[in-house]
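Methods: holo model generation. Sequences were used as deposited, without trimming of termini or removal of tags, and paired with ligand SMILES retrieved from the corresponding compound records. Each pair was processed once, and we did not select among multiple samples. The sequence and glutathione SMILES for this entry were:
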Amino acid sequence: MKQESAAQNTPPASPSPSLHLQDDSDPQALWIFGYGSLVWRPDFAYSDSRVGFVRGYSRRFWQGDTFHRGSDKMPGRVVTLLEDHEGCTWGVAYQVRGEQVNEALKYLNVREAVLGGYDTKEVTFYPQDSPDQPLKALAYVATPQNPGYLGPAPEKAIATQILACRGFSGHNLEYLLRLADFMQLCGPQAQDEHLAAIVDAVGTMLPCFCPTEQALALV
Ligand SMILES: N[C@@H](CCC(=O)N[C@@H](CS)C(=O)NCC(=O)O)C(=O)O
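and the model returned the structure below.
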């Protein structure tokens, strides 16, 4: 999906991201952008949510995961954001307010940073229903410097890895298919060729891995 070059806000790391990301309309509010498991399992209290996208980033299954969707011996693959001037990544932004802000940040620090190797980054989020009114949001991004980063691989190899891995939050295939389901719901304007190629590769390999009824039991 071609996008005009996005002005990318890359703020310095901030120990209190909410100071940089306050919602002008509600200083107590903070928006958190989810583009992977946060899309279907935020698991923190929030006051509002919007489907939409961020420009200047592409989603990639380039982060290893040895806890939620994999193990030390067989790391799974989960998503991160890659800076890409022509990129556009769809997801969900959640608004947290008042007490919810610290609760969400404490929870996500453990889930994303401590257990997942993600770091926080300020992004500009465009709500699907009002792209002319973008919002500042906090995103959790796994950079190449984090120890769990796996980097690029052919989509077929990524599919093979996903089919073989599971962790404390479930099978890696569930992670892939729930994200693919979300993208279907976003409509035809939401494209993710990387995700679609991995889903296609899984579809061609799944019958070789196990009969359909066993495959359905995986997720
Ligand atoms: N930060 C991305 C990716 C988050 C993600 O998938 N993180 C993993 C940590 S490795 C996770 O929370 N997994 C929980 C699960 O797989 O259910 C997002 O905003 O959704």
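Residues 34-39, 41, 65, 68-69, 78-79, 111-112, 116, 118, 140, 169, 175 surround glutathione (CB under 6 Å).
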